[in-house]
Amino acid sequence: MEEWEVPTSLSATEAKANWSCENLECYMVLVEAEKTAIGAICFLAGPITLLENALVLWVIAATATLRRRPSYLFIGSLALADVFASCFFTTSFLDFHLFRRNDGSTAYLFKLGGVTMAFTSSVGSLLLTALDRYLCIHQASRYKVLLTRRRALLSLLILWSTTTFISFLPLMGWTCSTGLTPPCSRLFPYINQGYVACWTSFILVLLALILWAYALILCKAHRHESSMTSLQTAAGTGHARMRMDIRLARTFGLILLILVSCWLPVLSFMLADVSVRLSDTQQRAFAFCSTLCLVNSAVNPLLYALRCRDLRVALLQLLQRLCKTRRCKTLTEDLTLSSGEDKFSASCEVEMPRIRTPQLNTVSEMVSS
C-alpha cells in the first residue's frame, strides 16, 4: 500500500517536476508515427460511421411502418448515438491528440461530455435492442401489449436523459480537486478518478445485461428447437436446414464478440487508471484502444440495422422512389422545352414505355400515373 501512496504524497512542485502538465503536455503523448496511424483510422472510420448511421436514420424516418415499431425506434436511437459519436469523437480526438489544441477546462469538459454521451447512449440503445429481442422471444404472445410505441418512446426518453446527465457531471462540477496533478486521471484532464470508476462500472453493468439478455434468448431458442426436433424428423424436414438455435448462436456470438472486443480494452485501461498510475506507453495504448469504440459504431449498422429484412426492403423502395422521381423530373423538363404534341408523344414512349393510356393530356397527369 505504501508504494501506491507515494505519488499522492508528493508536493505540488515535485509532482509537476515529475509529470509536467504545461498546456496538457502530459496527456498529449503520441509520437508522429502514432499520430499518423490514429489520424488515418479516424479519417476513415469517422465518415463511414456518419454515412452509415445517417442512412439508417433516413430510412426509418421516411418509412411510416418502421417508425411505428418499437424495434426500429431502438435501432434509430442506436444510429443517432453513433452519428453523435462519429462527430464528437472524431473532431475532439483529432483536435486534442493530433493538433494539440487546448481550449481550456470548460471547452474540454464540454467536448468530453459530448463524446461520453454518444458512447453511453450507444451502449444503452444496444441494451434496449437486446431487451426488445428478449421480450419478443420469451413473451411472444404478449409482446405487442408489453412493448407499445408509447413505452418504447418513454424508455428512450429515460435513456437519453440519464446518459446526458451522467456524461456532463464533470462539466457541472465533478472534477479533480488538484487540477492536473495526481491523483487525477492520467487518461482525461480535469477528471476525477471517482467519476472514471463510476462511469466504467455503469458501462460494465450495461454490457453484462446485454450478455444476459442474449444468453436467455439462446436458451429459449435451444429449448424450442429441441422440442421441435422430433416433429421435424418425423416429417422428414429436420435436416433440410440448419437449426434456428445454431443460427442464432452464430449471429449473437458475432455481435457479442465485436462488442466485447471493442469495449473491453478501453474499460480495462480505465479501471487500471483508477488503481495505478499509468505510464506514457499505457496512455498511448489507451489512445489506440479508444478508436475501437468508433469502429464499433461503424459496425453497428451492419449488425443491427441492415441485417433486418424490413429495413432493407424499405431502403430499396426509397431508392426506387428517388430514381423514379428524378426520372419524372427530367421528363417534365424535357416536355416543357419541347413544342408540339408529336414530340410529347415520342418522349412518353421512350421514357415510360409501360404507359398505355393516351387519354392523359397533361404533364401532371403523366407524372401522377
TrEMBL record:
Pfam family, one: 7tm_1
An example molecular function term from Gene Ontology annotations: cannabinoid receptor activity
Membrane topology of this protein: Multi-pass membrane protein
Main location per the UniProt record: membrane
Domain G-protein coupled receptors family 1 profile, residue spans: 52-304
Record keywords: Cell membrane, Cell projection, G-protein coupled receptor, Glycoprotein, Membrane, Receptor, Transducer, Transmembrane, Transmembrane helix
InterPro entries in alphabetical order: Cnbnoid_rcpt (IPR002230), GPCR_Rhodpsn (IPR000276), GPCR_Rhodpsn_7TM (IPR017452)
Entry keyword annotation includes Lyase: no
Subcellular location: Cell membrane; Cell projection, Neuron projection
GO cellular component: neuron projection; plasma membrane
Membrane-spanning parts: 37-60, 72-94, 106-131, 152-174, 194-218, 251-272, 284-306
Family (UniProt): Belongs to the G-protein coupled receptor 1 family.
Name of the protein this chain belongs to: Cannabinoid receptor 2
Organism whose genome encodes this protein: Mastacembelus armatus (zig-zag eel)
Highest classification ranks of the organism: Eukaryota, Metazoa, Chordata, Craniata, Vertebrata
